[in-house]
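Long-time lurker. I teach an intro course on protein structure, and each term I like to show students one example going from raw sequence to a predicted 3D structure in token notation. This year I'd like something fresh instead of my usual example. Would anyone be willing to generate the tokens for the chain below so I can use it in lecture? Attribution to the forum is fine with me.
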Amino acid sequence: HSSVFHPLRMFSVNRIEACKTCQWKYTCLGGCRAHAYIDSSSFYAKDETTCMFYKMLEPPLTEDGFYDSDR
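-- Reply from a regular --
Happy to contribute to a lecture. Here you go:
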């Protein structure tokens, strides 16, 4: 395993500052890491396109994978 990819293997949506309080974070998981990197030069930025897409869909998922009934 390459040490270059270690941060991506250990990635968590909770490490994305813009996603920490978002009710959709367990649904979109911060989006695509490649898109985030292309747009912001950081793997730890949110993917704006995926973010907007998921917010138009079904209710968000909770951390354990269930739909959030509070929406």
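Some talking points for your students: The longest helix spans residues 33-40. Residues 38 and 47 are 9 Å apart (CA to CA).
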